[in-house]
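Whiteboard transcription, Tuesday session. T.W. wrote the structure tokens on the left side:
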């Protein structure tokens, strides 16, 4: 009798393990392939100093899911913005996401959210990542989903060095505006550097609302 109960118990454990495995396979994070359009094909862009900067803010579930396989970004009031950079100069340029600001209708500047902190928020982890960006292995230990961590790290804007007559893109994360609208909001990039001469170029600033 005890042997029969033990076999039944073992069978239930095996069935449960299979269900857990199937669940994890069905709901595993999937990396979304994303290729940006040419900068001038976006509604929100600025062409200045032989550089084209374009932004594509994502405030809809469909727009977010084109980039990342998670619906939690907007749930956590985080807005991904695709920033495309085209450099038509004979020198390389440098941009860093920490030098890109969301400017509200009242003129207040909002800093971007580093991708490790974004991952902490959407994964339900307490606290925030502060200081220098942790190594990928440190983030992975906290989040536990390798594909998600690698996808966010790969698509995050971070720092871009764009060669002459070349282009690149990355995703920058900002808090969703309190009213959920980008009307009157702008993207402000005060520091774009000419790497060859090690000197800053003029700042960039353009509207975002039409880019939704």
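and on the right, the sequence the group agreed on:
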């Amino acid at each position: 009798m005890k042997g029969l109960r033990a076999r039944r118990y073992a069978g239930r454990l095996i069935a449960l393990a299979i269900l857990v495995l199937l669940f994890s396979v069905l709901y595993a994070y999937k990396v979304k392939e994303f290729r940006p359009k040419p900068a001038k094909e976006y509604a929100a862009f600025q062409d200045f100093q032989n550089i084209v900067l374009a932004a594509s803010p994502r405030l809809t579930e469909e727009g977010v899911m084109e980039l990342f396989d998670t619906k939690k970004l907007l749930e956590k009031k985080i807005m991904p913005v695709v920033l495309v950079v085209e450099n038509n100069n004979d020198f390389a340029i440098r941009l860093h996401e920490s030098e890109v600001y969301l400017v509200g209708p009242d003129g207040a500047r909002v800093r971007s959210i580093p991708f490790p902190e974004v991952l902490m928020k959407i994964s339900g982890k307490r606290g925030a990542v502060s200081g220098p960006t942790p190594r990928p292995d440190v983030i992975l230990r906290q989040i536990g989903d390798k594909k998600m961590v690698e996808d966010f790290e790969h698509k995050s804007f971070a720092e871009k060095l764009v060669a002459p007559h070349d282009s690149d893109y990355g995703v920058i994360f900002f808090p969703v505006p309190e009213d959920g609208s980008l009307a009157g909001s702008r993207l402000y990039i005060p520091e774009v550097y000419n790497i060859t001469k090690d000197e800053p170029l003029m700042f960039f600033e353009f509207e975002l609302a039409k880019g939704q």
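Someone added at the bottom: DSSP finds six helices and twelve strands in the chain.
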